[in-house]
Fold this sequence. Notes:
single chain, alpha+beta, Beta-Lactamase, Helix Hairpins, Heat Shock Protein 90, 10 helices, 12 strands
Amino acid sequence: MVMNLRPHSIRARFTLLSAIISFAVFAIIGAGLDLAIWTRLQDNVYKQTERVATDWIGSWTPGRAVPPTPKTQINLLQLVDSRDKVVAASPAAARQGPLTTFRPPLDDRIQHGTQCGPRHGCLILTAIRVPPLETTVLWRGQPHYVYAGMAEPGLIATHELELLTSAGVLAATALAAWATWWLVGRTLRPVAMIRARTAEITVSDLSMRVPEPPGRDEIAQLARTSNKTLARLEAAVEQQRHFASVVSHELRSPVAGLHTQLEEALLYPGDVDPVTTIRTALSTTERLQAIIDDLLVLARIRSAPPAAPEPIDLAALVTEEAKGKVHGTPVRTTTSGPVVVLGNRIQLIGVLNNLVVNAQRHAHSIVEVTASRSGGHAVVTVTDDGEGIAPKDRERVFEPFVRLDDGRRRDPGGSGLGLAICRAIVTAHHGTVEIEDSPRGARFVVRLPLIGAETAPSPN
């Protein structure tokens, strides 16, 4: 079984990532700093040893090499001949053999290096080949060498520098990790509050909202978007509950009537005409079927995924649909050139047909349908010369199952869902349908975005 070592918490992930990156960066910086300090110390020692060695050579007199008397930390000085014999030395280097065995050549008289041995540990040395003039005067041309050095400083010899650098790297990494942990925790604190509040929200109570932190960062935008989504969800659930209540009420009456008729036919077979009962039951079931079909259409418009829209010329559509209305009140059309929108042809035909049939039902002598362009929108109007609709009822008629008295009288078998379906379709096309003032009758106005408008429709 493979274990997942990746932390589940975003805070822990960022902290771990920050620690890894910080350790790598600080380790490189520490190694560079360590190397720079070590090189600087070594160079300083080389400069001192070279200076002390040359000063000692300069103090010699003809025929005699004066033994050195160190006055600095460079306390190891030796003069060695070509047979590795120590000719002169400082007190600290007098009781041991040559400090080193390497010999600078003629073309490179001064060399620096580190010599490690079991007797004196590691030494930082400068080896100088005595110039030919002094060699000739003092030793008849026999090569001699001067060694000047000192023991490695404790900071280098005991690896104290590496230990201090490593401790600094670890401390800086820990500080960076803690800062990341604190900063990410502070940043994600509103997220934890949003999560806790979201866990308290249930379908039975959608009135709660998540806390919105100040500012305009991504978390604040998330909180505001979540509250807007909750508000839409609450409105949709309330609408669904109201719709379910209305549907149950509208279906209960015909179902109860059908049940009563069938029950009477069974209880009083001699008093009830079965043919009449069957006809009445059939009429009731037809009404129920019409209501159910309209409900399915309405539900499909609200919940089905959007279909690909197509360009539709509403002017041509109005003219074509008007020609098919050969029965009922005459329909007169007026169009002004192409009026092209994006939408679902079948649904828009349904909207136009529903509005025209509704106008024919209430008109006295004529129904007028127009299609035009206005301010980036296609405008379709359906006007009748009937009694009209009172301003207080102009919004109510678009609610499911709302039917005015005149509508019930003219169409007793209607479901009361036609105008609700029209509004749902037009809304899905990012348009509006309203009832506006008219000199006579009712005037339904549909507005849809033209092709090229900023808001593209997404019909179901």
